[in-house]
Write a structure and sequence with these properties.
By secondary structure, the chain is of the alpha+beta class. Helices cover 32% and strands 25% of the residues.
Length: 433
């Protein structure tokens, strides 16, 4: 029995020895990582993703530790062809618009949006073995991605803005998929924050910046804060339309049989509804093209199922039908544009149960039931010809305080006659927020 064990161990060691002989030398691996990262920096220059940064400022509390003490928000589009330039999509300190209207304030001189965007790069100027020391740490899985892990430090301690920290490199093509640390040599006039930057695989062997978490808690010159930056919309717009245009269509040998019995003319009421729906469709298409609204999908269908439950139990027959869409931002937003209800991704993610979701949707559905309308000016396509950074100034979906109060009361009535009447939920906190 002992001989068998020794034999198994000996046989098991053979492929390990063979694998060791096939291992790539460390210097060659580092050179591949450096070359891939330099190619990554150049490849990103073709993109202009949406960038969203949210900062929560904290203050010390004797009883509770660090507690929130305000926030900052930025939403814009990156111009990576020109470095880390940003075009803001939301401006001003306060807005009368429904979207982002509840945020305390936007970025000030203390926080520069491009400083957070800079964290999508390890180092754009000299990320190589001439400027950095690479120490191999080991192997690690990030989800299902097998990675090589390195500690990275600048060779010259006096170099400003060099990355200091750890990188995770997928072991197939040597893309950096995560890096955690900060930039070296703070000065009295500028501060580099510690951060954790992640990239995601787009399916075409590209790893694109997706999420950055950063914080500062031990620097007396700046406020204590926590921040997250999200990037998306690397290829928004007309990709689906272009795919449809390039499809090869095979004509059927049988002639098309037009079974239309009568002309499809609208009644005056139907024409009015169709005109309003055209405005909704135009707004949704514009926001989806800009990467602010998610394409219609499964989440929208779930929201519409809850809407259907509210309509059926309240004997409502709303025409045209109410639709739901999802805004891509992480803010807590809900608003109505005509017969289309929009909830933000951030709100959908934090709602704890279906009853709370139903309460939010009931409030927005009440605007539709009570006849609170937006104008149909966006049914005209020339009204959609404006600069991208003016998008949210044009699309301001808001109601008067009296209309909001009426919708709140009507929403409570809808819930009392719905399947969710015995499930109070926690929606009142979100409605107040």
């Amino acid at each position: 029995m002992r001989t068998l064990k020794i034999l198994v161990l000996a046989l098991g060691a053979m492929p390990l020895a063979a694998a060791a002989q096939q291992q790539t030398p460390l210097t060659e691996v580092v050179d591949k990582i450096v070359a891939q990262e330099q190619a990554e920096v150049q490849a990103l220059r073709q993109y202009s993703p949406i960038v969203e940064t949210y900062i929560q400022i904290l203050r010390p509390s004797k009883d509770l530790g660090a507690v929130p003490n305000g926030d900052k928000y930025f939403l814009g589009r990156a111009d990576l062809a020109n470095g880390v330039e940003l075009v803001p999509l939301v401006t001003g300190t306060r807005t009368k618009h429904k979207m982002f209207g509840g945020l305390g304030s936007f970025f000030s001189d203390e926080f520069l949006p491009r400083g957070f965007l800079q964290m999508i790069y390890v180092d754009t100027n000299g990320f190589d073995r001439e400027h950095y020391k690479f120490d191999y740490v080991g192997r690690e899985f990030l989800g299902e991605v097998r990675c090589l892990v390195f500690d990275v430090d600048p060779l010259s301690k006096g170099d400003k803005g060099r990355f200091v920290g750890r990188i995770w490199v997928e072991d197939q093509d040597y893309h950096i998929v995560r890096f955690n640390g900060g930039y070296s040599s703070r000065s009295k006039t500028s501060y580099y924050f510690s951060f954790d930057s992640w990239r995601t695989n787009d399916g075409n062997s590209e790893w694109l910046p997706a999420y950055i978490y950063s914080e500062e808690g031990d620097n007396v010159a700046v406020n204590t804060f926590k921040a997250q930056t999200r990037l998306w919309g690397y290829a928004p717009g007309r990709s689906m339309e272009e795919q449809e245009l390039s499809k090869v269509l095979v004509e059927t040998p049988r002639p098309v049989n037009d079974q239309t019995a009568i002309a499809n003319d609208y009644s005056p009421l139907q024409a009015k509804r169709a005109w309003g729906r055209q405005a909704e469709d135009n707004i949704a298409a514009k926001m989806e093209q800009l990467g602010l609204m998610a394409p219609y999908g499964d989440v929208d269908k779930v929201l519409e199922t809850v809407i259907n439950n509210l309509e059926v139990t309240n004997n409502l027959d709303i025409q045209p039908p109410v639709r739901c869409r999802v805004l891509m931002t992480s803010t807590l937003e809900s608003f109505t544009m005509g017969h289309t209800i929009v909830l933000s991704r951030g709100l959908v993610d934090v709602l704890p149960d279906e009853a709370s979701l139903a309460a939010i949707l009931a409030h927005e559905l009440s605007h539709v039931v009570l006849g609170h309308r937006m104008g149909a000016q966006f049914a005209f396509f020339n009204r959609l010809r404006f600069d991208e950074k003016e998008t949210l100034r044009h699309f301001g979906f808001t109601f008067t305080p009296d209309e909001e109060q009426a919708a709140t009361q009507e929403g409570m009535d809808l819930l009392r006659r719905s399947p969710y009447k015995d499930q109070p939920g926690n929606a009142q906190f979100f409605l107040q927020a």
